[in-house]
Amino acid sequence: AQRVTQPEKLLSVFKGAPVELKCNYSYSGSPELFWYVQYSRQRLQLLLRHISRESIKGFTADLNKGETSFHLKKPFAQEEDSAMYYCALTTYSSASKIIFGSGTRLSIRP
Amino acid sequence: ETGVTQSPTHLIKTRGQQVTLRCSSQSGHNTVSWYQQALGQGPQFIFQYYREEENGRGNFPPRFSGLQFPNYSSELNVNALELDDSALYLCASSSDGSAKNIQYFGAGTRLSVL
After folding, report:
1. What is the pLDDT of residues B44-55, one digit of tens each?
2. Chain B contact set for A96 (CB, 8 A)
3. B90/A32 Cβ within 8 A
4. pLDDT tens for each residue of B66-95
5. pLDDT along chain A (110 residues), means of 10
6. Chain A neighbors of B109, CB-CB under 8 A
């Protein structure tokens, strides 16, 4: 069965410190992985997807198929990074069913 | 460009009733997905509609049903409401091609079942 696990419900770091939000997945095929973010009082929105291999707002995420992980990283946290982050997986079938993790709340302390 | 809009924003129903939630997809999008988000959880996939046909379904009972209209707007219907149906219901739209799996979310409808 397809599953996405985010082991941390809450991650609190100081401004300027490095951030790593963990995500592990379970899927036997070739998945497409995403990070979605929800800022306070805003709707859920895409942050980045692994096939784009981009850095968005200083965040990067590398798909590690051996460890089935897709951790989100940023070298220097900013206060505006405080938000709820969801890791998500989809398959390349026609259904485009997206499976979300339970989310990690990132809190950046000044 | 118009984003995804959902109505109503809040709804209170009693157990056993039926409810209809509505979603207008983003301009140019032909696919709509519905999700249920319980408190403290990530969104759970209910089903997806592509060009007016159901295109995949999650682990939800048949009392959760949907429709997509020719203008690609969509409805989610839930019959025989149960207390556990209380949640935020999210609609997301997407398009064909290379952006097929990028979903654009609405603000959600918060349903409370008493």
Report:
1. 999 999 989 998
2. 31, 33, 48, 55-56, 94, 100-101
3. no
4. 999 999 999 999 999 999 999 999 999 998
5. 93 97 90 93 92 87 92 96 96 74 96
6. none
Instruction: Say whether B81 sits in a helix, a strand or coil.
Output: coil
Which class for A84: exposed (0-12), middle (13-18), buried (19 or more C-beta within 10 A)? middle
Question: Any idea which residue has 């809190």 for tokens?
Answer: A107
Specify whether the CB–CB gap between B28 and B95 falls below 8 A.
yes
- Chain A residue numbers touching B55 (CB-CB < 8 A): 94-96
Distances (CA, A) of B55 to A69, A71, A95, B18, B52: 28, 30, 5, 23, 9
Helical H segments across A19-73, by residue range: none
Residues in chain A: 110
